[in-house]
């Protein structure tokens, strides 16, 4: 197992804030919109440097999405910011008609995704957003794993023409990717080559997958770990290549097991190479209040659960053989 | 660009004939609101707006129009065709398979003249505000126009946008509500009262004008008046009083013609009532 270490921990939303500022410096068409959550979305540095290129919409997310769509018609590249729940479910129809169907170059940037929003509870912890966004034709869906990758992804989507959903979180997580990385939309990132089981993880569960890989290695199990930061378009080639080698799969995501990364992977496998697969995801339920760590444990999203899922997947592979 | 009143009237009549024929041709669509708004569209595209039928999506340096109540697509498509955005022959494909003239307007089929999809109601004002903000950022002095149905403003998003535009001094925006008092399920007064529209929009901080929407001279006059009031810190709202189905007597004023097509006999009756003109598609 390749060794990953970290010296610093940061929230991925701060990576978004830093990336937005850089994107704004590189391209003067970049504009930012926010629905009364500037602090939460870490947009203040952008606002300080480019006050005229920031739009405060107030607590009116539908209007924000429409304004963003309209600004593209004048050549702007709008980044909208609010919590993941209000970025997607609340404004699904606005995104569907005015952004996706109209093919507008809007970047929908969503913080506080998933359970790890923590104490606010289920009203704010959307676990369906990846599914909602990936179902929209033409929508790109990205869920980066740490501060550096979120920053790189934010800069990359400014250069990409078309609607994008960028998902990130609130908790502080280890920074283990390179600061000067190039983010390639749609290209999965090999974290660790292995032979016994493929672990496809997204978002901050990539770090949990690394911890799981280390534990599995101690027990003599050689896990391949791949960071699927882009859920749509999905890197089917990387997935199929890995599975051809390992013969079984674990998918790990902070999302409902229905409609997320796991289902995207399952769809590829069902068509091209039916393979035993175990889901590490929230089992079709709402969340609840608690600390992020407590919730990760209770809802089965931590390294221990990935280890257990990997063993189960291997067992199923061996039975099949 | 600036057509005289007589030419505008003649064009409006041609567009009305197109509307009934288009809706008849596919036996679906929305003739009532389309006929009621024909004078507005004609004035806008043949007299009031500075626009370019060569069509660029970003529309920099030209006036833009956004149709928010997308179901009145027949009047929009016919107007665009008459204004030179695409061939009038294409109107015959309205709502038929493989057509660029979808039931509700879309950018998806790359039809020149359409810059946003509409159909799901309540979204167009926000989009227009975004386009108006982009114009300001670009130092572009041209204007943004919108049209909404009166039933449509029952949607909550409209009021989010209504609050935003005056707060942010979006004063390069001229919006219009087609006040015909009808929606699918009946008169707006019965379905969900709109109350005092002037007082509501003024209370939100808009500069509000009234317009006789089926009087071409008044339509042109009020639109020009609205243009003269831009750049003064407030967005402008025109309350356009129309009759649904205007021009065809058996359709006038009835919500029943919101979304149904005339049969062969009704088509003939309608065309007879609309001024005989040449050059229909």
Automatic annotation (TrEMBL), chain A:
Domain Transketolase-like pyrimidine-binding intervals: 10-175
UniProt-listed CDD domains: TPP_PYR_DXS_TK_like (cd07033)
Keywords: Thiamine pyrophosphate
Statement: the UniProt record of this protein carries the keyword Transferase: no
Cofactors (names): thiamine diphosphate
Entry keyword Transport: no
InterPro entries reported in the protein's UniProt record: PDH/Transketolase, THDP-binding, Transketo_C/PFOR_II, Transketolase-like_Pyr-bd, Transketolase_C
Pfam annotation, one family: Transketolase_C
The organism's place on the tree of life at top rank: Bacteria
UniProt record similarity statement: Belongs to the transketolase family.
Protein name: Transketolase family protein
Organism the protein comes from: Mucilaginibacter celer
Automatic annotation (TrEMBL), chain B:
InterPro entries to which the protein is assigned, alphabetical: THDP-binding, Transketolase_N
Cofactor entry: thiamine diphosphate
Domain Transketolase N-terminal, chain residue ranges per copy: 10-269
Entry keywords, A to Z: Thiamine pyrophosphate
Pfam family, one: Transketolase_N
Family classification: Belongs to the transketolase family.
PANTHER family: TRANSKETOLASE N-TERMINAL SECTION-RELATED
Protein name, entry field: Transketolase
């Amino acid at each position: 197992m390749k060794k990953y270490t970290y010296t610093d921990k940061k929230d991925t939303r701060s990576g978004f804030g830093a990336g937005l500022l850089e994107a704004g410096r590189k391209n003067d068409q970049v504009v930012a919109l926010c629905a009364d959550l500037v602090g939460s979305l870490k947009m203040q540095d952008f606002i300080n440097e480019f006050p005229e290129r920031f739009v405060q919409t107030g607590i009116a997310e539908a209007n924000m999405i429409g304004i963003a769509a309209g600004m593209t018609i004048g050549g702007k590249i709008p980044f909208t910011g609010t919590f993941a729940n209000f970025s997607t479910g609340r404004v699904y129809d606005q995104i569907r008609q005015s952004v996706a169907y109209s093919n507008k170059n809007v970047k929908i940037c969503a913080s506080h995704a998933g359970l790890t929003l923590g104490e606010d509870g289920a009203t704010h912890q959307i676990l369906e957003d990846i599914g909602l966004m990936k179902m929209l034709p033409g929508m790109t869906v990205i869920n980066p794993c740490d501060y550096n990758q979120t920053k790189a992804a934010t800069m990359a989507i400014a250069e990409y023409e078309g609607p994008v959903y960028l998902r990130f979180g609130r908790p502080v997580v280890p920074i283990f990717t390179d600061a000067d990385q190039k983010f390639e939309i749609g290209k999965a990132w090999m974290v660790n080559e292995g032979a016994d089981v493929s672990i496809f993880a997204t978002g901050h569960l990539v770090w949990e997958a690394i911890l799981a890989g280390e534990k599995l290695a101690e027990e003599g199990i050689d896990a391949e770990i791949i960071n699927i930061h882009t859920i749509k378009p999905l890197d089917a080639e990387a997935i199929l290549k890995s599975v051809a080698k390992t013969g079984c799969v674990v998918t790990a995501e902070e999302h409902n097991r229905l409609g997320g990364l796991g289902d995207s992977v399952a769809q590829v496998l069902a068509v091209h190479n039916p393979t035993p697969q175990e889901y590490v995801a929230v089992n079709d339920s709402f969340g609840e209040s608690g600390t992020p760590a407590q919730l990760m444990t209770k809802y089965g999203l931590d390294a221990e659960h990935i280890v257990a899922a990997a063993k189960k997947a291997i067992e199923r592979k061996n039975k099949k053989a | 660009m600036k057509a005289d009143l007589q030419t505008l009237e003649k064009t409006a009549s041609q567009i009305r004939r197109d509307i009934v024929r288009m809706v008849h041709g596919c036996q679906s669509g929305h003739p009532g609101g389309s006929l009621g708004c024909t004078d507005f569209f004609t004035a806008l595209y043949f007299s009031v707006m500075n626009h370019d039928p060569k069509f660029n999506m970003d529309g920099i340096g030209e006036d833009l129009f956004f149709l928010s109540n997308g179901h009145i697509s027949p009047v929009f498509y016919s107007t665009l065709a008459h204004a030179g955005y695409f061939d009038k022959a294409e109107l015959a494909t309205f709502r038929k398979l493989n057509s660029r003239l979808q039931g509700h307007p879309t950018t998806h089929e790359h039809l020149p003249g359409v810059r946003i999809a509409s159909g799901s109601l309540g979204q167009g004002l926000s989009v227009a505000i975004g386009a108006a903000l982009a114009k300001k950022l670009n130092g572009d002095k041209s204007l943004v126009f919108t049209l909404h149905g009166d039933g449509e403003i029952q949607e909550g998003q409209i009021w989010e946008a209504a609050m935003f535009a005056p707060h942010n001094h979006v004063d390069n925006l001229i919006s219009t509500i087609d006040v015909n008092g009808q929606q699918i399920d009946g008169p707006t007064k019965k379905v969900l009262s709109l109350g005092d529209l002037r007082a509501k929009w003024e209370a939100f901080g808009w500069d509000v004008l009234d317009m006789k929407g089926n009087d071409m001279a008044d339509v042109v006059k009020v639109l020009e008046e609205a243009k003269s009031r831009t750049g003064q810190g407030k967005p402008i709202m025109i309350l356009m009083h129309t009759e649904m189905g205007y021009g065809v007597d058996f359709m006038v004023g009835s919500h029943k013609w919101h979304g149904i097509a005339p049969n062969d006999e009704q088509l003939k009756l309608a065309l007879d009532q609309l001024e005989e003109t040449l050059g229909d598609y």
